[in-house]
Amino acid sequence: PLAIQDRNHVTVKGQVVHPEFRGRMVSAFLTHHFSEVADLSFTANLETELDNVSAGSTEWKGLLKDFWERFNKYCGNASRLQVRKVERMLEEKFGSILFPDLDNDSRICPSCSEGTLRLKVSKHGEGYFIGCDRHPKCKYIARTLSVEVDETEASDEIQSTFTPRLLGVLPDSDEKVFLKQGPYGHYIQVGEDIKGVSRKRAPLSEVKDIDSITLEDAIELLQYPKILGKHPDDDLPVLVTHSKSGFRIRHRRTLAPLPKSADPKEITLERALKLLTGKNVIRFGRPKGIKNPEPLEYHS
Protein backbone atom coordinates (compact mmCIF):
# COMPACT_ATOMS: atom_id res chain seq x y z
CA PRO A 1 0.00 0.00 0.00
CA LEU A 2 2.80 2.46 0.84
CA ALA A 3 4.53 1.78 -2.47
CA ILE A 4 1.46 2.51 -4.58
CA GLN A 5 0.80 5.63 -2.49
CA ASP A 6 4.36 6.83 -3.11
CA ARG A 7 3.85 6.32 -6.84
CA ASN A 8 0.59 8.33 -6.68
CA HIS A 9 -1.47 5.35 -7.80
CA VAL A 10 -3.88 5.69 -4.88
CA THR A 11 -4.73 8.04 -2.04
CA VAL A 12 -5.96 6.92 1.36
CA LYS A 13 -8.68 8.90 3.12
CA GLY A 14 -9.52 7.46 6.50
CA GLN A 15 -9.68 3.73 5.90
CA VAL A 16 -10.78 4.01 2.28
CA VAL A 17 -8.38 3.60 -0.65
CA HIS A 18 -9.21 5.80 -3.65
CA PRO A 19 -7.56 5.07 -7.04
CA GLU A 20 -5.84 8.01 -8.73
CA PHE A 21 -5.93 8.45 -12.50
CA ARG A 22 -2.27 7.35 -12.75
CA GLY A 23 -3.22 4.10 -11.01
CA ARG A 24 -6.19 3.62 -13.31
CA MET A 25 -3.94 4.04 -16.35
CA VAL A 26 -1.38 1.55 -15.05
CA SER A 27 -4.15 -0.95 -14.34
CA ALA A 28 -5.63 -0.49 -17.83
CA PHE A 29 -2.19 -0.88 -19.45
CA LEU A 30 -1.42 -4.09 -17.55
CA THR A 31 -4.85 -5.55 -18.22
CA HIS A 32 -4.55 -4.72 -21.92
CA HIS A 33 -0.93 -5.74 -22.57
CA PHE A 34 -0.17 -8.22 -19.73
CA SER A 35 -3.54 -9.95 -19.67
CA GLU A 36 -2.30 -13.24 -18.21
CA VAL A 37 -0.33 -11.70 -15.34
CA ALA A 38 -3.10 -9.20 -14.55
CA ASP A 39 -5.72 -11.95 -14.36
CA LEU A 40 -6.81 -12.71 -10.78
CA SER A 41 -6.53 -16.44 -11.43
CA PHE A 42 -2.81 -16.03 -12.22
CA THR A 43 -1.91 -15.32 -8.58
CA ALA A 44 -4.06 -18.18 -7.31
CA ASN A 45 -2.55 -20.66 -9.76
CA LEU A 46 1.00 -19.49 -9.03
CA GLU A 47 0.45 -19.90 -5.29
CA THR A 48 -0.65 -23.47 -5.93
CA GLU A 49 2.47 -24.12 -8.03
CA LEU A 50 4.71 -22.64 -5.33
CA ASP A 51 3.04 -24.89 -2.76
CA ASN A 52 3.85 -27.82 -5.04
CA VAL A 53 7.48 -26.65 -5.20
CA SER A 54 7.58 -26.49 -1.41
CA ALA A 55 6.09 -29.98 -1.21
CA GLY A 56 8.68 -31.30 -3.67
CA SER A 57 6.20 -32.29 -6.39
CA THR A 58 7.20 -29.49 -8.82
CA GLU A 59 10.74 -28.61 -9.92
CA TRP A 60 11.33 -24.88 -9.33
CA LYS A 61 13.66 -24.29 -12.25
CA GLY A 62 11.10 -25.59 -14.70
CA LEU A 63 8.41 -23.40 -13.10
CA LEU A 64 10.59 -20.30 -13.40
CA LYS A 65 11.58 -21.10 -16.98
CA ASP A 66 7.96 -21.62 -18.02
CA PHE A 67 6.90 -18.34 -16.38
CA TRP A 68 9.81 -16.32 -17.76
CA GLU A 69 9.30 -17.48 -21.35
CA ARG A 70 5.68 -16.30 -21.27
CA PHE A 71 6.36 -13.12 -19.29
CA ASN A 72 9.33 -12.18 -21.49
CA LYS A 73 7.06 -12.39 -24.55
CA TYR A 74 4.68 -9.84 -22.96
CA CYS A 75 7.64 -7.56 -22.13
CA GLY A 76 8.95 -7.77 -25.69
CA ASN A 77 5.58 -6.89 -27.19
CA ALA A 78 5.14 -3.98 -24.76
CA SER A 79 8.61 -2.59 -25.49
CA ARG A 80 7.71 -2.28 -29.17
CA LEU A 81 4.50 -0.36 -28.53
CA GLN A 82 4.26 3.15 -29.91
CA VAL A 83 3.29 5.79 -27.35
CA ARG A 84 0.52 7.04 -29.61
CA LYS A 85 -1.15 3.60 -29.60
CA VAL A 86 -1.04 3.46 -25.81
CA GLU A 87 -2.51 6.96 -25.61
CA ARG A 88 -5.34 5.98 -27.95
CA MET A 89 -6.07 2.85 -25.91
CA LEU A 90 -6.26 4.90 -22.69
CA GLU A 91 -8.30 7.57 -24.44
CA GLU A 92 -10.87 4.99 -25.53
CA LYS A 93 -10.93 3.35 -22.09
CA PHE A 94 -11.36 6.60 -20.14
CA GLY A 95 -13.14 8.76 -22.70
CA SER A 96 -16.03 9.62 -20.39
CA ILE A 97 -13.56 10.82 -17.73
CA LEU A 98 -11.10 12.62 -20.01
CA PHE A 99 -13.76 14.41 -22.05
CA PRO A 100 -16.77 14.71 -19.72
CA ASP A 101 -18.01 17.87 -21.44
CA LEU A 102 -17.32 16.90 -25.05
CA ASP A 103 -18.50 14.26 -27.49
CA ASN A 104 -16.27 12.80 -30.19
CA ASP A 105 -17.53 15.25 -32.80
CA SER A 106 -16.85 18.41 -30.79
CA ARG A 107 -13.29 17.92 -29.57
CA ILE A 108 -12.00 20.65 -31.88
CA CYS A 109 -9.07 22.59 -30.43
CA PRO A 110 -10.42 25.98 -29.23
CA SER A 111 -7.06 27.61 -29.98
CA CYS A 112 -6.33 26.70 -33.61
CA SER A 113 -9.81 25.39 -34.57
CA GLU A 114 -8.11 22.74 -36.73
CA GLY A 115 -6.65 20.15 -34.39
CA THR A 116 -8.40 17.63 -32.14
CA LEU A 117 -8.08 17.43 -28.37
CA ARG A 118 -6.29 14.22 -27.38
CA LEU A 119 -4.83 12.52 -24.33
CA LYS A 120 -1.09 13.21 -24.31
CA VAL A 121 1.88 12.03 -22.26
CA SER A 122 4.51 14.71 -21.60
CA LYS A 123 7.90 14.23 -23.23
CA HIS A 124 9.61 12.80 -20.15
CA GLY A 125 6.58 10.96 -18.79
CA GLU A 126 6.18 13.42 -15.92
CA GLY A 127 2.50 14.12 -16.51
CA TYR A 128 -0.62 13.50 -18.55
CA PHE A 129 -2.76 16.14 -20.15
CA ILE A 130 -5.34 16.98 -22.78
CA GLY A 131 -3.84 18.89 -25.70
CA CYS A 132 -4.04 19.62 -29.41
CA ASP A 133 -2.78 16.92 -31.77
CA ARG A 134 -1.28 19.54 -34.13
CA HIS A 135 1.72 20.11 -31.86
CA PRO A 136 4.20 21.74 -32.36
CA LYS A 137 2.21 24.05 -34.67
CA CYS A 138 -0.39 24.42 -31.95
CA LYS A 139 0.76 24.21 -28.32
CA TYR A 140 -2.66 24.46 -26.72
CA ILE A 141 -3.08 22.47 -23.49
CA ALA A 142 -6.62 22.16 -22.20
CA ARG A 143 -5.74 20.71 -18.80
CA THR A 144 -3.45 18.32 -16.95
CA LEU A 145 -4.93 15.29 -15.27
CA SER A 146 -3.75 16.06 -11.75
CA VAL A 147 -6.76 18.30 -11.07
CA GLU A 148 -10.50 17.68 -11.40
CA VAL A 149 -10.23 14.64 -13.64
CA ASP A 150 -12.47 12.16 -11.88
CA GLU A 151 -15.29 14.39 -10.75
CA THR A 152 -17.82 13.35 -13.40
CA GLU A 153 -16.99 9.66 -13.65
CA ALA A 154 -19.87 7.39 -14.57
CA SER A 155 -21.89 6.16 -11.63
CA ASP A 156 -21.86 2.49 -12.66
CA GLU A 157 -18.44 2.08 -11.00
CA ILE A 158 -19.88 2.47 -7.47
CA GLN A 159 -22.83 1.20 -5.58
CA SER A 160 -25.20 4.10 -4.91
CA THR A 161 -28.67 4.42 -3.44
CA PHE A 162 -29.31 7.56 -5.50
CA THR A 163 -31.80 7.01 -8.31
CA PRO A 164 -30.98 8.99 -11.49
CA ARG A 165 -33.59 11.71 -12.02
CA LEU A 166 -34.85 12.96 -15.37
CA LEU A 167 -34.76 16.75 -15.33
CA GLY A 168 -36.23 17.28 -18.78
CA VAL A 169 -35.26 17.57 -22.43
CA LEU A 170 -32.86 20.05 -24.00
CA PRO A 171 -34.62 22.83 -25.95
CA ASP A 172 -34.75 22.16 -29.70
CA SER A 173 -33.51 18.63 -29.07
CA ASP A 174 -34.75 15.21 -28.06
CA GLU A 175 -31.78 14.70 -25.72
CA LYS A 176 -32.83 13.90 -22.15
CA VAL A 177 -31.01 15.55 -19.24
CA PHE A 178 -30.41 13.51 -16.07
CA LEU A 179 -29.23 14.25 -12.55
CA LYS A 180 -26.97 11.36 -11.48
CA GLN A 181 -24.49 10.45 -8.77
CA GLY A 182 -20.91 9.21 -9.19
CA PRO A 183 -18.06 8.41 -6.78
CA TYR A 184 -17.19 12.12 -6.51
CA GLY A 185 -20.67 13.54 -6.12
CA HIS A 186 -23.69 14.48 -8.22
CA TYR A 187 -23.46 15.51 -11.87
CA ILE A 188 -25.57 16.38 -14.89
CA GLN A 189 -25.58 14.07 -17.92
CA VAL A 190 -27.03 14.58 -21.38
CA GLY A 191 -28.43 11.34 -22.80
CA GLU A 192 -28.83 7.87 -21.37
CA ASP A 193 -25.90 5.54 -20.66
CA ILE A 194 -24.84 3.55 -23.72
CA LYS A 195 -21.73 1.39 -23.50
CA GLY A 196 -18.89 2.85 -25.56
CA VAL A 197 -20.63 6.21 -26.04
CA SER A 198 -19.20 9.31 -24.34
CA ARG A 199 -21.88 11.56 -22.87
CA LYS A 200 -21.61 15.26 -22.10
CA ARG A 201 -21.48 15.77 -18.33
CA ALA A 202 -21.17 18.62 -15.85
CA PRO A 203 -20.30 18.18 -12.16
CA LEU A 204 -22.35 19.82 -9.43
CA SER A 205 -20.73 21.80 -6.65
CA GLU A 206 -22.04 21.27 -3.14
CA VAL A 207 -25.74 22.07 -2.85
CA LYS A 208 -27.90 21.95 0.28
CA ASP A 209 -30.98 20.55 -1.46
CA ILE A 210 -30.18 18.26 -4.38
CA ASP A 211 -33.91 17.95 -5.13
CA SER A 212 -34.02 21.66 -5.98
CA ILE A 213 -31.87 21.21 -9.15
CA THR A 214 -33.91 22.08 -12.26
CA LEU A 215 -33.47 21.70 -16.00
CA GLU A 216 -32.57 25.40 -16.19
CA ASP A 217 -29.78 24.86 -13.64
CA ALA A 218 -28.47 21.94 -15.67
CA ILE A 219 -28.47 23.88 -18.95
CA GLU A 220 -26.54 26.69 -17.24
CA LEU A 221 -23.83 24.30 -15.98
CA LEU A 222 -23.52 22.47 -19.31
CA GLN A 223 -22.18 25.59 -21.02
CA TYR A 224 -18.90 25.35 -19.10
CA PRO A 225 -15.98 25.43 -19.71
CA LYS A 226 -16.54 28.77 -21.47
CA ILE A 227 -13.82 30.78 -23.21
CA LEU A 228 -13.64 34.43 -22.17
CA GLY A 229 -10.90 35.39 -24.60
CA LYS A 230 -7.15 35.07 -25.16
CA HIS A 231 -4.46 35.88 -22.64
CA PRO A 232 -2.39 38.90 -23.79
CA ASP A 233 0.91 37.18 -22.91
CA ASP A 234 0.58 34.09 -25.10
CA ASP A 235 -2.77 34.28 -26.95
CA LEU A 236 -3.90 31.06 -25.22
CA PRO A 237 -7.52 30.89 -24.01
CA VAL A 238 -8.72 32.08 -20.60
CA LEU A 239 -11.73 30.06 -19.49
CA VAL A 240 -14.40 29.93 -16.83
CA THR A 241 -14.65 26.33 -15.62
CA HIS A 242 -16.96 24.59 -13.21
CA SER A 243 -16.23 21.59 -11.00
CA LYS A 244 -17.29 20.12 -7.70
CA SER A 245 -15.14 22.82 -6.08
CA GLY A 246 -17.12 25.60 -7.78
CA PHE A 247 -16.31 28.12 -10.51
CA ARG A 248 -12.72 28.90 -11.45
CA ILE A 249 -10.74 30.87 -13.99
CA ARG A 250 -8.22 28.79 -15.93
CA HIS A 251 -5.27 29.70 -18.10
CA ARG A 252 -2.90 26.89 -19.05
CA ARG A 253 -1.65 25.42 -15.73
CA THR A 254 -3.12 28.16 -13.55
CA LEU A 255 -6.46 28.06 -11.73
CA ALA A 256 -7.99 30.97 -9.82
CA PRO A 257 -11.12 30.45 -7.70
CA LEU A 258 -14.02 32.72 -8.49
CA PRO A 259 -15.18 34.74 -5.45
CA LYS A 260 -18.50 33.45 -4.13
CA SER A 261 -19.97 36.92 -4.58
CA ALA A 262 -19.09 36.96 -8.30
CA ASP A 263 -21.61 35.95 -10.96
CA PRO A 264 -19.82 33.62 -13.44
CA LYS A 265 -22.13 34.82 -16.23
CA GLU A 266 -20.87 38.39 -15.82
CA ILE A 267 -17.12 37.72 -15.49
CA THR A 268 -15.11 39.64 -18.09
CA LEU A 269 -11.70 38.82 -19.50
CA GLU A 270 -10.24 41.83 -17.69
CA ARG A 271 -11.58 40.63 -14.32
CA ALA A 272 -10.38 37.09 -15.03
CA LEU A 273 -6.82 38.29 -15.75
CA LYS A 274 -6.74 40.06 -12.39
CA LEU A 275 -7.89 36.92 -10.59
CA LEU A 276 -5.13 34.91 -12.30
CA THR A 277 -2.54 37.18 -10.67
CA GLY A 278 -4.10 36.99 -7.19
CA LYS A 279 -2.84 35.25 -4.06
CA ASN A 280 -5.22 32.28 -4.25
CA VAL A 281 -4.12 30.88 -7.61
CA ILE A 282 -3.28 27.21 -7.98
CA ARG A 283 -0.55 26.10 -10.37
CA PHE A 284 -0.46 22.45 -11.36
CA GLY A 285 1.18 20.04 -13.79
CA ARG A 286 4.78 21.12 -13.07
CA PRO A 287 7.27 18.21 -13.15
CA LYS A 288 8.77 17.51 -9.74
CA GLY A 289 12.28 18.80 -9.13
CA ILE A 290 12.19 21.28 -12.03
CA LYS A 291 11.95 24.91 -10.93
CA ASN A 292 11.50 26.45 -14.37
CA PRO A 293 10.33 23.73 -16.75
CA GLU A 294 9.89 24.15 -20.44
CA PRO A 295 6.32 23.83 -21.77
CA LEU A 296 5.04 20.26 -21.99
CA GLU A 297 6.01 18.60 -25.24
CA TYR A 298 4.66 15.61 -27.06
CA HIS A 299 6.58 12.51 -27.99
CA SER A 300 7.97 12.60 -31.50
UniProtKB/TrEMBL annotation:
**Which is one GO molecular function term here?**
DNA topoisomerase type I (single strand cut, ATP-independent) activity
For this UniProt record, the keywords arranged alphabetically read as follows: Isomerase
Name the domain of life. Eukaryota
The Topo IA-type catalytic domain, residue ranges: 1-75
**InterPro entries on file:** Topo_IA, Topo_IA_cen, Topo_IA_cen_sub1, Topo_IA_core_domain, Topo_IA_Znf, Toprim_C_rpt
Per the record, a Pfam family? Zn_ribbon_Top1
Q: Name one GO cellular component term.
A: chromosome
Question: In its UniProt record, which GO terms are filed under biological process?
Answer: DNA topological change
**PANTHER family the UniProt entry points to:** DNA TOPOISOMERASE (PTHR42785:SF1), DNA TOPOISOMERASE, TYPE IA, CORE (PTHR42785)
**What protein is this chain from?**
Topo IA-type catalytic domain-containing protein
What is the originating organism of this protein? Oryza glaberrima
**What is the organism lineage in this UniProt record?**
Eukaryota, Viridiplantae, Streptophyta, Embryophyta, Tracheophyta
